[in-house]
Write a structure and sequence with these properties.
By secondary structure, the chain is mostly helical. About 75% of the residues lie in helices and about 0% in strands. It has one domain: Tetracycline Repressor, domain 2 (Orthogonal Bundle). α8 packs antiparallel against α9. About 30% of the residues are buried. The mean pLDDT is about 95.
Length: about 190
């Protein structure tokens, strides 16, 4: 794929991410993406055979981005990692009250094609595995309470951050996400 075509594909993914996080997977169409790109809908099929393929490309992009993000923060202390995780989710709220990608796909989960459902689960597992490892490290270093169960606490943090984004959107209050989520920090500390 030449550079211009690769640029178009990248632009399509970025436009789709914006639509996804503001309107949900079922809230946008190929036509919406093509119109913003200034191309015909049929031309978008050159890059993605179907909307499902576009959704899979979105999940791949989100997973790669999370991997890069987690590597950027790997040398931080566990408590700081959790705070940075909350900050990362807070950026969605600060950007037009967007919802996190995993949360959006979960809302539309029952209507997603099978391959996309599997990919969404992999994204959720990637995030929860990272959280679980971070919590286990925090317990080991005595920064977190010894009674915490890493996997269950990871799900709690993930669910709270996703839910806090939705509450912030409903309240039209971008600051609500962080204030809700930061309450978790005090539950972790010794």
């Amino acid at each position: 794929m030449n550079e211009t075509k690769q640029d178009t594909k990248i632009q399509a993914i970025e436009i789709a991410k914006n639509h996804l996080q503001l309107r949900g997977y079922n809230g946008f169409s190929f036509q919406d993406i093509a119109a913003e790109l200034g191309i015909r809908k049929a031309s978008l099929h050159y890059y993605f055979a179907s909307k499902e393929d576009l959704g899979l490309a979105l999940i791949t992009d989100y997973m790669q981005s999370f991997q890069i993000w987690s590597e950027m923060h790997e040398d931080r202390e566990p408590l700081e990692k959790i705070k940075k995780f909350i900050d990362m989710y807070n950026t969605f709220s600060q950007d037009g009250l967007k919802v996190c990608p995993g949360g959006v796909f979960c809302i539309d989960y029952n209507t997603l094609p099978t391959k996309l459902k599997k990919s969404v689960c992999q994204l959720q597992e990637q995030i929860q595995d990272w959280l679980s490892e971070t919590i286990a490290d925090g317990i080991k270093s005595k920064a977190f309470k010894a009674t915490l169960k890493p996997k269950e606490t990871a799900v709690l943090i993930h669910a709270t951050t996703q839910g806090a984004l939705q509450i912030a959107r409903m309240q039209n209050n971008p600051k609500a996400m962080k204030s809700i989520s930061m309450n978790l920090v005090s539950l972790l500390e010794r």
